[in-house]
Amino acid sequence: MKKFADRYNMCFLAVAMLSLVLLFGNPGNILAAYEEGDVSDGGTITGTVKLAGDVPAAKTLKVDKDPATCGHDDIPSEVLIVSGDGALKNAVVSIINISKGKKFEGGTATIDQKDCVFIPHVAMVPPGSTIELLNSDDVMHNIHSWSMKNTAFNEGVAGHGKLPKTFEFPETIKITCDVHKWMTAWLIVQANPYYVLTGADGKFKLEGVPAGTYIVQAWQESLGKTTQEVTVSAGGEAKADFELKKKAKKKRKRRKKEK
Fold first, then answer.
1. How many Å apart are CA 178 and CA 165, to the nearest integer?
2. Number of domains comprising the chain
3. First and final CA of the chain: distance in angstroms?
4. Residues 191-204: pLDDT tens digits?
5. Is 217 within 8 Å of 93 (Cβ atoms)?
């Protein structure tokens, strides 16, 4: 009887751990909660995020529905915004291995849909944040979140309506509109307050960083991510410049014709 009970307990523990892995990706995420506090004599990390290689021609998105609201002309794509010298806009730079530091100062309160475009294209919020998904247009939009850790949703929002949603867990979430296929946005739920979005010049600045050595990550939706180790001294300024490369296209293997 005891042997049966031991086997039952082991099976129960295994199922519980598997459930945690599926829900959080790694059980350690539960234990590694970020601790907010006051930072005295914090340092800064500054730098630039650029595209490695040649700057591609700007792309446009075909607008082919609801012209009275969305317009008749194609619109500039925000998937890759790069300046003449390679500076990347809308790259997210963040410290990914810090467990204690400054307090969260909030994040993006809303993502709007105006003229059939998501505004902003990239939004960032702390875990547990509730964000208002707005529709400033006269037509219906259907907001579709492509999330794994947070509860995914696919819901319509009538003209001039809104849809509040809460995002509990750190995750990078793509948001689309099923009615207007060209519409995309990104919601970045960050585990700590050390994150920033680059402007048109590709520059960034992370402030109030406690002295220490960290892994800093630069991410861009079409180029992926890269990291580097950065050491910050008390009250000092550390430099971290990033270059992101275009992903190589996978070659399709041709099937050999049967003789």
1. 18
2. 2
3. 64
4. 999 999 999 999 99
5. yes
**Do 84 and 195 lie in a common domain?**
yes
The amino acid that residue 42 corresponds to is G
Which residues have a Cβ under 8 Å from the Cβ of 22 and sit 6 or more positions away? none
Q: How is residue 93 written in tokens?
A: 């730079």
For β-strands 171-177 and 203-209, DSSP reports them as: unpaired
Cα–Cα distance between 172 and 165 in angstroms, integer? Answer: 15
pLDDT digits (tens, 9 = 90+) for 40-94: 999 999 999 999 999 999 999 999 999 999 999 999 999 999 999 999 999 999 9
User: Phi and psi for 11 in degrees, rounded to 5?
Assistant: -65, -40
Block residue for tokens 């219906």: 140
Residue 135 sits in which domain range? 34-244
226 by Cβ neighbours in 10 Å (0-12 / 13-18 / 19+) ranks as: middle
Token look-up 């529709």 returns: 135
